[in-house]
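Quick one, tokens below. Sequence please?
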């Protein structure tokens, strides 16, 4: 029997022990004290195990450490926390992301007003490569996840909250999916009739996905696109069954376009102009003049080492709705 106040918090990590401490600190700093923190090490080879035992486990009795003896991927790592957790609720923060101090308190307060047929998300705040503070949030959402997924809504990074039983009953994450893990979960829950409620606050601090100084799987174009291709094929049967064949083709195109646009911007920031031009030729009909100009200006500013210390506000529903038409 689980504790009806407890939140199972998951941090997955793989060969990034230098980032782990800050993620752990952001969890331990929560104003809501009723949580267990499960660090899942997906078979790191950089001394993560030794680092955790020497530096983290003694920080707080609420920390648990589970190591995979073989690398299984993000979905399997989160499942390890879900199925070994004891909490009523489940939340995760990746090792390179952070939470605001009231993240858990705000989500628990909202979740208590709903039942396990609901899941939750919030806005986030981060600093981009030029030093601008960007606020991203959802418009007010309260309804069937099925409808929001059909509209092209996608899960926000480091900004999700669930009843753990909801995930257990759904079988957890699909461990065959390596790219689009969060989206896969939302599709699974959507087809099970789960609803979505957004919290109108900026509670998380994800790393900038376009950080030019960080090597991540999502920054590897070939790997990312191959992974997305595999996921799209895995999703095909369920999407066609629920939304129809025509929608699936639009979904396939929209997902691919969104990823290619990300890598166009990333290549511009890294001054890989040949690769950027190759992507531009493929997606030019989906790039506005403003987007091209902005990418070019960012490249120039980065080359000249110029930061723009200016706060910028975004009201944003992450997704690919514009490309579904």
């Amino acid at each position: 029997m689980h504790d009806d106040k407890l939140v199972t918090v998951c941090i997955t990590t793989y060969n990034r022990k230098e980032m782990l401490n800050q993620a752990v600190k952001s969890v331990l700093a929560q104003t809501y004290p009723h949580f267990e923190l499960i660090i899942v090490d997906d078979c790191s080879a950089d001394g993560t195990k030794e680092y955790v035992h020497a530096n983290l486990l003694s920080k707080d009795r609420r920390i648990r450490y589970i190591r995979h003896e073989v690398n299984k991927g993000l979905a399997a790592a989160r499942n390890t926390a879900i199925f070994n957790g004891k909490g009523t609720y489940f939340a995760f923060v990746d090792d390179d992301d952070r939470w605001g101090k009231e993240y858990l308190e705000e989500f628990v307060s909202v979740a208590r007003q709903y039942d396990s047929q609901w899941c939750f998300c919030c806005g986030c705040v981060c600093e981009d490569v030029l030093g601008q503070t960007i606020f991203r949030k959802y418009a007010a959402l309260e309804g069937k996840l099925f409808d929001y997924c059909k509209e092209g809504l996608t899960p926000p990074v480091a900004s999700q909250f669930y009843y753990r039983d909801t995930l257990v009953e759904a079988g957890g994450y699909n461990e065959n999916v390596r790219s689009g893990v969060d989206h896969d979960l939302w599709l699974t829950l959507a087809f099970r009739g789960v609803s979505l409620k957004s919290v109108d606050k900026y509670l998380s601090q994800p790393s900038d996905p376009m950080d030019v100084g960080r090597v991540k799987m999502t920054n590897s174009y070939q790997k990312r696109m191959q992974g997305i291709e595999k996921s799209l094929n895995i999703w095909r049967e369920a999407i066609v069954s629920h939304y129809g064949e025509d929608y699936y083709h639009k979904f396939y195109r929209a997902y691919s376009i969104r990823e290619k646009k990300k890598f166009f911007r990333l290549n511009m920031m890294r001054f890989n102009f040949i690769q950027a031009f190759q992507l531009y030729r493929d997606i030019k009909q989906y790039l506005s003049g403003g987007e091209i100009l902005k990418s070019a200006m960012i490249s120039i500013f980065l080359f000249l080492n110029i930061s723009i210390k200016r706060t910028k506000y975004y009201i944003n529903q992450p997704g690919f709705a514009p490309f579904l038409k």
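The radius of gyration is 20 Å. Confidence is low (pLDDT under 50) at residues 211-218.
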